[in-house]
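Page 42, continued from yesterday. The earlier attempt failed because a stray header line got pasted into the input along with the sequence. Redoing it now with the clean sequence only.
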Amino acid sequence: MDAERGLMERVAKGDQGAFGDLAQRYSGKLLAVAGRLLGSRADAEDAVQRAFLQCYAGAAGYNPQWAVSTWLYRILTNVCVDELRRRATRTAHDERSAVGPLSSGNHRPPDAYLDLHRALERVPREARVLLALRYVNGLSYGELARIRGITINTVKSQLARGKALLRDELGKRGAGHE
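This time it went through. Structure tokens are written below.
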């Protein structure tokens, strides 16, 4: 962890090599979380790139009492939450301005991943972020609390709520398959 903090000190001084090392260390983990949250590899790659740009631009503001991973996850989840908000606004606008039917048929994807992604879309945003960080990256309750700026009890209740909603939604989808 001290090596990573040393990398951040070098990044804050404009060391592009250190920034490259940091990006190489974390890009895979960040991409996995962003992919779960955004559901699209292209959107996830964009989110990770924006998170790294914010990391580089804000490196001087990094507080070494935080683990570098915690700081990066916090930046990434904020980028992803912003994207999800933009999508919700766009979707609401598109639905209001649509003249005809939104789809020409009832398409049910056979792929279980798509069912999971659609079920995750029904889980509230904060719970979805926590579920992704917990189960994609195996972060502890304490790490989740620091990343999202909430208490451990809130993390636990949001995760429980998110899992219950996800379970219910997947149950509905499983029961609805013909």
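Notes: Residues 97-110 have pLDDT under 50 and may be disordered.
Reminder to self: strip header lines before submitting.
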